[in-house]
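Hi V.,

Quick status before I head out on leave. The structure for the redesign project is tokenized and pasted below; the design run finished overnight.
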């Protein structure tokens, strides 16, 4: 091997090692920042008064739903508390390997509970363009992120009807039947 090839190989090894060290340090700093945000969020919530611990479900690796626990302030009646929980779901996860179930153009417009225990949730699409094109798995994860979160945290609610822009549609985004009240889908939840 010529001296030139030895120098090129040595330089490549040095550059690789430096890149690995920098990447490791950036990842460590990001993880520390994420953990600090979680602790600060929980401390701020605890300092403001009584809280409830809720389990939110977010899409993650392998097309599964993963639980994320949060302490939320106790607010108002059952419907106000549901609105608060759903706002947390729409705002997205804290964990870096999980994803928001809905695009940022969605908001929770209103929630209503009927006497039989079915919660109606109106998801308002505030986008200036058409509704996003989703595949069947993405639609399933979005819908059951909301449904599983509601049913896991509120025993008074037996099923969920999702509305989009004030209307119950035969399907939310073209694949999943949403013309009926929905129950939790435990098969989508990742095993721990």
């Amino acid at each position: 091997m010529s001296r030139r090839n030895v120098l090129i190989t040595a330089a490549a090894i040095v550059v690789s090692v430096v890149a690995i060290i920098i990447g490791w340090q950036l990842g460590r700093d990001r993880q520390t920042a994420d953990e600090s945000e979680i602790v600060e969020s929980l401390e701020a919530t605890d300092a403001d008064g009584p809280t409830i611990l809720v389990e939110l479900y977010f899409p993650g690796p392998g097309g599964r739903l993963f639980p994320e626990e949060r302490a939320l302030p106790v607010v108002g009646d059952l419907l106000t508390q549901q609105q608060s929980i759903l706002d947390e779901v729409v705002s997205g996860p804290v964990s870096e390997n999980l994803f928001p179930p809905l695009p940022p153009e969605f908001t929770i417009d209103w929630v209503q509970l009927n006497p039989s225990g079915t919660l109606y949730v109106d998801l308002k699409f505030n986008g200036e363009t058409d509704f996003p094109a989703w595949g069947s798995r993405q639609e399933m994860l979005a819908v059951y992120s909301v449904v599983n979160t509601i049913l896991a945290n509120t025993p008074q609610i037996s099923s969920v009807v999702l509305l989009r822009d004030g209307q119950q549609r035969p399907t939310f985004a073209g694949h999943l039947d949403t013309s009926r009240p929905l129950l939790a889908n435990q098969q989508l939840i990742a095993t721990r």
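Above is the designed sequence. The first strand starts at residue 51 and ends at 60.

G. will cover questions while I'm gone.

Best,
W.
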